[in-house]
Amino acid sequence: MSTAFETESDLIEAMAAERDDAFREAIRRYQSPMMAVAMSLVGDKLADEVVQEAWLSALRAIGSFEQRSSLKTWLLRIVANEGKTRLRRENRQTSLDAMLEVDPYFRERFDSTGHWTAAPAAWEADTPEALLTRDELQHCIEQTMMQLPGLQQAALNLRERQGMSMKELCNILEVSESNVRVLLHRARMRVFRTIEHFETTGECQPGE
Predict the structure, then answer these.
(1) CA distance to 4, 30, 87, 191, per residue, from 80 (Å)
(2) CA pair distance 171, 160, nearest whole angstrom
(3) Tens digit of each residue's pLDDT (9 = 90 or more) over 7-66
């Protein structure tokens, strides 16, 4: 039997039919981004467990998948939900309201509905990912990103490293676009504060 799947619908249909070649192809295509989401949310030690649980959940539900989003987005949303469940179980997830409350600088930039009070400057010209090419900063930036709260880290990794659109981020993390922007801005501010500290002192910024 051929393992070539010309369309995503062909792959989904074969997965629903419990074809082993379809499962292997899905793992080949999507395991890496699924691990990236899991690692962002729960860290290296728990990522494998979260992804395994996500695959089990996906395989149980694939027959009812209505293809309102891409298969990749659907799988990543399942991973994100599994990761958030694990975080809640371990009481390590910080709510978005709490994140806004603890940072006056951040709070001033959003109104009560979570929208920008003033549009942020364009970040694309000098993104954290572009700055990673500077070897002397790479360690500091990676260290900072690993210290970010789960949803912030996941949002930043998915946006900057996986190239996800804002719509995809909303679907995967199941938050509004305004809250995705909050998460991204907060994460980027942490990264850029690390960069500023390094450029001033030549040292990594101590963890908070």
Answers:
(1) 28, 14, 10, 22
(2) 17
(3) 999 999 999 999 999 999 999 999 999 998 898 888 888 899 999 999 999 999 999 998
CA dist 163 and 188 (Å) reads 15
Whether 169 and 109 have beta carbons less than 8 Å apart is answered as: no
Q: Is the CB of residue 71 less than 8 Å from the CB of residue 59? A: no
Cα 83–53–75 angle (5° rounding)? 70
pLDDT digits (tens, 9 = 90+) for 65-82: 989 889 999 999 999 999
- 128 vs 189: CA distance, rounded Å: 10
Q: How far, CA to CA in Å, does 127 sit from each of 99, 122, 123, 130, 195? A: 22, 9, 6, 5, 11
Cβ atoms of residues 174 and 81 within 8 Å: yes
Q: Which domains does the chain have, with CATH numbers?
A: 8-89 (1.10.1740.10), 96-201 (1.10.10.10)
Crossing angle, helix 135-147 and helix 177-201, to 10 degrees?
Answer: 140
DSSP H helical ranges for 62-165: 71-89, 96-101, 104-107, 128-131, 135-147, 150-156
Rounded CA-CA distance 19/64 in Å is: 16
